[in-house]
Specification:
By secondary structure, the protein is α+β, with helices and mostly antiparallel strands. Helices cover 49% and strands 10% of the residues. The chain has 17 helices and 12 strands. Helix 7 packs antiparallel against helix 8, helix 7 (129-152) runs parallel beside helix 17 (411-428) and helix 8 (159-176) packs antiparallel against helix 12.
Amino acid sequence: MSSVALNASSGSGLAVRTPSRAALAHLPGDDGLPLVGDTFSFLGDPLALLTQKARQYGLVYRTRAFGQRSVGLLGPEGLGFVLSDQTKLLSSAEGWGYYLGLLFPRGLMLLDFEEHRLHRRALSVAFKAGPLKSYFAALNAGIVERLAAWRQGPSEFLFYPAIKQLTLDLAATAFLGAALGHEVGAIKRAFIDMVAAATAVIRRPLPGTLMRRGVLSRALIVDYFGGQVPLRRERGGEDLFSQLCRATHEDGSLMTAQEIADHMSFMMMAAHDTLTSSLSALVHFLMLHPEWQESVRAEIDALGLAAGEPLPFERLDQLPLTEMAFKEAMRLIPPVISLPRRAQREFEFGGHRIPAGTDIFGSILFTHHMPEVWPEPERFDPTRFSEENSRGRHRFAYAPFGGGAHMCLGLHFAYMQAKCFAYHLLGASKIALPAGYRPKWQMIPIPKPRDGLRVSLAPRR
């Protein structure tokens, strides 16, 4: 998925103009249908469209969708070129700006080069082993409480909205702390509005639009975080917000209240929405493949813990098959399917000259389904991620959390939450697809089951 053209600034401070149609005419590809280009084909089945374009034009091609022209760099090499970017050629801020600029400005993904490095270093203190262990206690308690409520309800329910609410609750507790008070409801509603606005069709905050609600919700969030910063610095705390309030830049200075608000709002969004998608994918495939569900459950039973007992942080590494199943689910349905960037200078790739200002994208979805890299790519097989089977695989053949300088900071947070959820869910319950039901997924903007993913939940006997 590529971004709509913006006349944003480059890392050097110079305006980088989007090249004209003629400037890209030498590249293989086409403009698709009049006016809409390939927009609807991409929305309907992006993998099918990418596969068709690759067969027709090769792994480097130009396309037009979502109101703009862009160039796809497909496969592990293309993805690696986008993610490695050792020469500071590609702007992530300008690539993502159209989607996230009004709602999550100055979030980590919307910073580039040296500025991005400095902020990432300051934020990394909140994702070290000590803080993660503190967050994990909150995850354990929150998951146990919510799963107990699920078991008391109907045996068949829609999983996606249920897990979406759970991940939002867990992000609020782990990131903001347990002592939130009455404002927690307003904060959660504001985040829901901001995420909805990020994918709205109307991109301007006009009255009555999703974008308008999102922008107003951002103002509420920034005001809340800004007022809380001095209080958190004074009283301390182990939640992520309190960690960031104490984080410093390389020169020893504390981050400003505005910087903290920008980072907190972005990380809450990222931790909530992408993890909702990935946990839904994991449950989807474990229901489709009950033999793998039983294998994961056997691994959980082998821990020898009593039913409902918290999963100890120190034993997370004893669930390798659970992690492999989660990885395979994200290979088949990655939480982010492509990575937009904007070229700051002219460059060459795959024998093609690509002008400065070109919007480009590396496709995670296409790369994860290449039969040259993943034999029988549509088959669910967690053993692909065993140490033996992973040996010799291209470094960028698998990238659900990005890579390079922009590798997701919350990578380990996501894995530990997935393992904790699987431990509590499968340790006490069995999950199955209702008879005759086969779920379907939409992949844009963040993958989710079209009908909410119907799940039949039953206690273990």
